[in-house]
Structures are given as structure tokens and as C-alpha cells.
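call fold target=Carboxylic ester hydrolase
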Amino acid sequence: MKLLKICLALGCLLSSPFVSAQSAPIVQIQSGRIAGLHQQDVDIFLGIPYAKPPLGELRWQRPLTAPAWRGIQQATTFGPSCMQAPLPNDAAPLPDNYSEDCLTLNIWRPSQLKGPTPVMVWIHGGGFVNGGSASPVYDGAAFARAGVIFVSFNYRLGRLGFFAHPAMDGNMFVGNFGLTDQIKALRWVQDNIIQFGGDPRNVTLFGESAGGYSINALLSSRFGRDLFQKAIIQSGNGRHSLAGEQSWQQAKTIGMAFAAAHGISGTDKAALQALRALPATEITGDLNLWTMAKNHQTYSGPMTDGQVVEKEPQVAYQRGDFARVPLLVGANSADLGFVTTPPVNREAVLAQFGADSSAAAMAYSGITDKNALAYQIAMQKLMLEPARFVARTFAAHNTPVWQYRFGYVAKRQQHNGVGATHASEIPFIFNTLPAVYEGKVTAEDQQVANMMQQYWVNFAKTGTPNGTSLPEWQQYQPTTDRLLWIAPQGISATQSLTDPQQAQLDLVEKLQQ
């Protein structure tokens, strides 16, 4: 990681010997002209404002259109990441540059374009409290070299992105400000990507963790569902928010508790003005992925606001209220799962299945350790079963869907013996393994990365992940319950098969209802 830290500090992109002396690419967008970078066969545009800075009176307001400028604005460095308490050992480390003025996006495109080009838009994860688009893990150059235009962006996080208070009653688009940022960025893509050679009618939205949850929400949002034509959900649940989902009323109570903790009372405009006068660092505090639990009384996370998020994704899916777009969906073999209380014994873990506890004992007979069993079920409840639920819902509505489970572990990490953990698929999909594993990337690791990215790119280009030289990925059907298993042995063992955890997930499904 030493090399990565140096890159973050110095800006490897700008100091790279591969940045060409060729004339900087210049593009006219609605706000004005921008000049980017030329790197080998890729044009790069960084830190483009897609909305007006959400400062002062615009804190806790829906994003407004970015102001126009005269002349040429340089788009050669990332904008600041949105305010957050940095996360130690983050899977996608960020430069130490945070600001409330953070609503920017980035674009990588092939230097030589051949007609309207498919677009892939990435929503980063981080539990809605961490993350940003400036991590080297999210570098879009490999996507551009594969023939698509790649877009990433920042959105407001934590209490600056998800906050409710009675003083906001009567305003439009309140509460889920981070999600309104995402919608604004997608609208910007629709309005401007054609100037970069992109096809606004062929946009694939993809994201991981909180980014995946966001796509679940946008698929059912009347404000977001028409802004993309395909979607990929990576470890994004699909039933509930990963951060816990509050109602608008509950979120207002939490917002008042936060205000009271800072000596602010009342529910009128004066209270809102006092909240807007607080320093951004005071609003963020120590809130990050590791401290969310202790902050639950003063941080709501995403909420059902009756506008952007009218209902939980699970309810929207069950009612058929979602965009019918082709979908890839899946999770990892050792994905995220929360065990809040250490189990007493194996029987106590299985007791949650109630009348099905005997069937559960048989289905989980291969897991004898009580802690491993508790984690397996928690992971299935949070990640694996919701992914299947989403796949089944799309298939039931005759919408093409492919399910995957990522089980490959980079050679450097295989000694840990725990499987593919949360977010570990990302550097394979982005083909940015050196950003994570530095010089210890094996040929087999690289083969898996090439395969994963090709599936994603094929899907963006054609609406199906399959292509020549790739293991066949069969479309999901509830009757066969088949998924693509990206095996620990690598590409040679990757195959479509009936889910080995089918019996277990059938039991877990009953717990979700």
C-alpha cells in the first residue's frame, strides 16, 4: 500500500510518464468549455462541476444547476471528496481532501471514438457516510480502453447528505439529499455526455454496496428511473437500506436530537439557520462506517421521504413498481454480514428459523462452528438472499437478469482463507489490481480481472454479458436458480450452476418476510 499512499499524496495521474504532450482535449458542455488530459489512448476530464456548490443556504437543499463560466476551465484534477470522517483501511482509499463543495464528476473516454459510445456511470459505496470518486481503485481508464465512456461522481454523505428536521417541512426533495445529487449527476449525463461522444440512450448505471442500494432506490424512483437503460447491482441488498432505513417522521426526530446535541432547539426557520451555520466538520463529527452504530440517535441515513424514495425497495419490487431494464445482480462469497450478539451455541443460532429449525439444522449441517454459522446466515440475510430476491423479481416481470456470485480471491490474499469479502470484486471489475495489490498481481489474478471487466463491458454495449472466449453466463430463471459462480480456482472453474446455497436461501427467505 506504500505506493498507493504516495500516489494519493502526489497525484500519480498528473505525474505519470504516460500523460501525453498531445494537445489537451477540449469539450463544450452546457456550463462552458473544459480542457482535460490525454493519457496514452484515453482522454480524461476530472473535477467537472455538475451542480452548484451546496454551501450556505444551499446546505440541505436539492442540487441546483452548476453556474456557467467563461473561457476554458481546467478539468485535470479531482475535486474534493464530500465531507466525511476518513475510514481507516478503506478498500478504496481517498486523497486527504474533503469539502462541502464536492459535487463534481469525472469522465474517461477513448481518444478515438467510432460513433455514439455506450456510457457506464459508477456510484461508489461507503455506507452513505464514506467514499468518493477519486480513489485509484475507481480509475476508469481500463473501461475507456475497452470501448465505453466511464463516468464517476461524488454525492453528499452522512448528515450533510441525509438529514431531516421539522423546519424543512413543506419543501420539495428534502431528506435524501445524497440521492438527489445522484439524480442530478445522471441528468447531467443525459444533457452533456453527447458532447464527449457518449450515447445518452445507452447508459448503464452500476454501483457497489451503498452504490448498489442507490440503484435499487433509483430503479423505483419516478425521478431517477428514466435516466439509464441498464443496471448492475453489486452487493446492494435490495430489500432494505444497508444503513438502516427510517421513515421521514423518524428521521425528523433524529434530526432534532442532533440539533439538541448542538444547543439548537425549535422547529422554525431560525433553527434551520442555526443548523446551517454549524461548521461542516461539526456536522460530520466522527461519523463513518465504523461509528455508525454509536451515532444512530443523531444520524438517520437514507429515509422513505415520500418523494425521491416513496417506499423501501422491497415494497417497490413486490408491487412491480420499478424500471424494467436489463440487470446484473450479485454478491460475494464472504460478503457483509452483521452478528450483533455472540451466539451461545449452534442450536441458539438455528432457533431463529422457528418451526423450520430442524430443516435448517440439516441445510446447515456442513457448518459446525457456531460463529461461522451465525455469520453465514447474517451474510445471507443481508446480501445473498436479497440479490436472489431482486433477480427473481426481475425474471417474474420478464425482464432480462443475470445473477452472479464472486468467489475468487487474489493470490496475495488467499492465505486468509475467508473467501471473497465485501468490495473485493471491485478492482477486478475496474481492472485496477495494481492499485490494491501493487506488484503482487499474478497472471491468474489478471485473467479474472480481464474476464470480469469484459462481462460488465459486454453488458453495457449489448445488453448481455456474454461474449466470445468467456464462460457462458446463463440468464437467471427462478425454476433453475442458476448463477455465474466466479470460482476460487479462477477462470477455468468459472461456470453457470444451480446455486449451491439454494436450500439455505429458501429458509432465509422466510425470515425476510
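return ok
The chain is about 30% helix and 15% strand. The longest strand covers residues 198-208.
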